[in-house]
Amino acid sequence: MNPQHNGLYNQCIRLIDKGEAVSFLSEMIRADSSDPPGNEKRVALVDQKKFSEYGIDAQIEELPQLEGEQRANLIARIEGTSPRPHLLYSAHSDVVPATPMNWKHDPFGGTTEGDRMYGRGTVDMKSGSAAMIMALCLLKKAGIKLNGTVTFAHTCSEEVCFHGSAAYVAMHGMDDVDALAISEPTNSTIYVAERGGFWLKFISYGKTAHGGLPQEGVNALSHMLMFFEKFRHYDFGGVRHSLLGKSTLSITTLHAGTNTNVIPEKCEATVDIRTVPGVSHEKILSDVHDIIAALKKEEESVRIEVEPINDHPPLESDTRDPFVSLAFETYSRVYGKKSDPGGGYYMTDAVSFLGAKPIPMVICGPGDTALIHQPEEYVRIPEYMDCIKYYIALAINYLV
Predict the structure, then answer these.
(1) pTM for this one?
(2) Which domains does the chain show, CATH number per domain?
């Protein structure tokens, strides 16, 4: 960070009000945006109120075409003397549902104990969202003059197929965007890669019969289990990535039958496959068809259909890219230590943004990734405060 940038950064840091930042994050947690059904407009209204306090125009873009309730993105922007370079700050506003009986703390209370704030979304990913919002507000309050543009996109429905980020791309495009930063949880390090996602839906068809006369029917559930006995040990070819490890396969849903004494005539299941570079989704699907065909030779009544319901390749940015290098240099200045490049086992809204335009990407956010989607999810307040500083510094270093 050069002396000019360092001075501007310190100018912003002096304006940080920890109490305000913590209160704002708590308010976001209390805005329940469990997906399904969504209700992300609740969060967007909280965002918009905060931006308005700092004189930043923030637009709520409602998406009634999406299933659920009150689906909306929020878009805020600070423009400088030139439209380019254009830095996109990305976060998602939805969270996975929480079951209160599994929590000691109110999952939507945003309560603080010591240096921890508890609640659904504290890690995934409202602390990262709040950090980016507070960073933009402080840049505005300090009167930092940018030579480019920073846009904050708080998108809905990330947890269910990235509908919000896809809507952003459809409405705004990516032609004028030069770099992407995402504040998903990374244990406060920098990720430059994420696994791909290949989700498959299976339907097995059979013939109903009385449970006491199974020979008169065709058990769709039994056939599905036969298939998974072969598929669950799928060999990805031993491909291992230096940052992302190995590909994984998880059977995540299985539904069949209407009653205990009725042979199920239909069985549905889904599989979540996370892939690393070098693993072909096309080959996986081809191998699935081969397994089904082999089963049908063993038992003629087998009838299983498969359909991809999510198909996104793994993503990786070159650490030698100027923006990515700058992100690491900025990290060293803010955190006082170096971050080795890392990779996420999860997918992010980058699948929509980089699917439209291949631009450099970094992921950096507060929170322990082991707490994602877990009961008693919490974020450490110091991590959240450091993330605010990081996104102030990154905007200054890239756009001033």
Answers:
(1) 0.94
(2) 3-194+315-399 (3.40.630.10), 196-312 (3.30.70.360)
